[in-house]
Amino acid sequence: MPRVQEKAKILETHREAEGIHRLVFYAPRIVPTARPGQFVMIRVASEGSDPLLARPFSFHRLHKEDGLFEILLRVVGTGTRILSQRPAGSVLDVVGPLGRGFSLPSGPHETVAFVAGGIGIAPLWALLDELTSKTHRNRPEQLHVFYGARTRAELVPLTPLKRLGVHLVVSTDDGSSGEAGTVLEALRRRYEGGSGLPDRLYACGSLPMQVSLARWASGRNLSVEMSLESMMACGIGACLGCALPAVNPDDPQAERYVHVCQDGPVFDPRRIRWDKIQPIMARPLTFASL
């Protein structure tokens, strides 16, 4: 799928939650071929100023008929702070669509679970839009969304999500909204004992969450796809800065790496060597927090 470099205009900016912002871009050349799970590289600064490198952001929502895409970002560094302060009307250099997106269920008969930890809701929302308008248009109740955050203030507005008609389970670590505990605890309670497991599961969140979820899903008859997003400098495989240890099918003990920008960001968790990643579990995996 060809990538495009485009001058994209910011049409809207919104503060969605504590430290979380949503931006709407007009990019009529990028949007037509974009898919949920893919991403764009956005140069957040003016030409010649810091930060020099572009930042990766997942498609949060896609409005193809209008040539629009949305991103959701958490302000944690210089790049995201600058971008969150960009006013409507700003024009930025954007390259995309990039990476490998989510595959879709075969039909409405499939029960699907979504596991979103914090800013991990960003790419999963675009997928929810796709499913509720296509494969599950008449059966949105087959879509089960588990969305968690540390506290109520960090949850994005849920009304648009509820309008999709999906089954929504909200949790917060401190119990200030929804169920008390992590999003994985909410997932385990729902499928305790292995009964009623979904046919397919999609996930995005912090690295510790992904590691734990991969362990939980291992051995269960589930089709799982995870958005394993990472820090990167180029988005096209040139810098090799987003390498993750992967399973070598010919020799399980041999070293092999995949690159998030080209081989992902969406992966079957069985392809990843989680035991090799655990020493760096403190590093969050999310495009939206760079």
From TrEMBL:
Residues 3-104 form the FAD-binding FR-type domain. FAD binds at residues 55-58, 72-74, 79-80. Belongs to the PyrK family. Responsible for channeling the electrons from the oxidation of dihydroorotate from the FMN redox center in the PyrD type B subunit to the ultimate electron acceptor NAD(+). GO terms for molecular function: 2 iron, 2 sulfur cluster binding; electron transfer activity; flavin adenine dinucleotide binding; metal ion binding; oxidoreductase activity. InterPro entries: Cbr1-like_FAD-bd_dom, Cyt_c3_hydrogenase_gsu, Dihydroorotate_DH_ele_sf, Dihydroorotate_DH_Fe-S-bd, Dihydroorotate_DHASE_ETsu, FAD-bd_FR_type, FNR_nucleotide-bd, OxRdtase_FAD/NAD-bd. This is Dihydroorotate dehydrogenase B (NAD(+)), electron transfer subunit. Keywords: 2Fe-2S, Electron transport, FAD, Flavoprotein, Iron, Iron-sulfur, Metal-binding, Pyrimidine biosynthesis, Transport. It comes from Desulfacinum infernum. One of its GO terms (biological process) is 'de novo' UMP biosynthetic process. The gene is pyrK. Binds 1 [2Fe-2S] cluster per subunit. Pfam families: DHODB_Fe-S_bind, FAD_binding_6, NAD_binding_1. Its cofactor is [2Fe-2S] cluster; FAD. It comes from the Bacteria.
